[in-house]
Amino acid sequence: MPDTSPKPTRFQRFLAYRWLYVCALAVFALDQISKAWIARLMPLGTYGSPGHIEVIPGFFNLVHVGNTGAAWSILTGRSTILALLAVAALVAIFLLRRAIGLRRLSTQIAFGLLCGGIVGNLVDRIARGHVVDFLDFHFGNYTYPAFNIADSGICVGVVMYVLITFFTRTPDSPSR
Question: What predicted TM-score, i.e. pTM, was given to this entire model?
Answer without folding.
Answer: 0.85
